[in-house]
Amino acid sequence: MKINFNQLETESLIDSLIKELAEKYGKRPEQLESAKLALKHAIKAYITEDKNQVAQKFYANIDYLIQAEKNNDKDNYNKIQCKKKCSHCCSIEVSITDEEADLLLKVAKDKNIKINTKRLKRQASHFSENWHKLGPKDMKCVFLKEKECSIYDYRPSVCRTYFVTNEQMLCDTFKANHKIKTWMPISVAILEIAIMLCGNGGSMAKKLLERIKRDK
Fold it and tell me: In sequence order, what are the beta bridge partners of 1?
């Protein structure tokens, strides 16, 4: 259920989220303060009248927080193995918010990016525990073109916060039989969860299909 932030006390909500997630992920004061600041900006984005800018405001907050955490945790950040055209992670299931879905379709239209709706339908029917039953071809993101993200500057928050620290050869979605190691500071995790909570997070395939059908 999407929260109506006009009916909530923003500061109280932020404190509640911080407390709950800090207990779950562990406590580091400097990270929590960074997360609290980012959360204030993120949640206020939902109170603004210009709803078309919400997703991009969230992205700006995420990018800012990642840069801050990079400086606070250089040793672990430097272990990140993500490289251009690797694209293994572009075959995992992705959740997005309502605002992200609207933005992605707008960008695709503006850039004349063709979306494979047949693949989206198959993905929508295999979300979560059945995802790997899709097979290599249908697991690939509809925005992946020639091993590159065609909407990279507008990629979803889930994609922006996914950083792998094990060797690239271990990232292969179709061969990996182990737990992939990632870099995810608590502050970034808190903001990501808040974004999904704010924006009614759910299956990217389902949300895109709903809007494509609506706009026909």
Answer: none
